[in-house]
Amino acid sequence: MRLFHLGRKAKADILIFDIIGAGWIHQCLPVNCTSVTVNFRHGFPFFLSFKFFQGAVNALLRYSPIEPAWLSTIIFSGIVEHLSPRIIVSCADNNLMLARFAEINSKIKVVLVQNALRDTVGSITPGQALPTYLAFGLAEKKIFTRLGVSCESYLPIGSVKLGLALSTERQINHYSSDIAFISNYRPDMAKQGRTQVERLLERNQKWLFSSCVDYVQSTDSEIAVIIKSRNHTDQIAERHYFMNLANQERLHFVTPDKASKELDSYFAGLSSAMVIHSGSTLGFELFGAGKKVFLGATADPELVNGWGISEYLNILPDFVKMTPNREMIDFRSLVDHILAMSMDEYLEITREARAALMSIPADVAPNIKVRTTIEHLLKGA
Question: What's the rounded Cα separation, in Å, for the pair 100 and 144?
Answer without folding.
Answer: 16
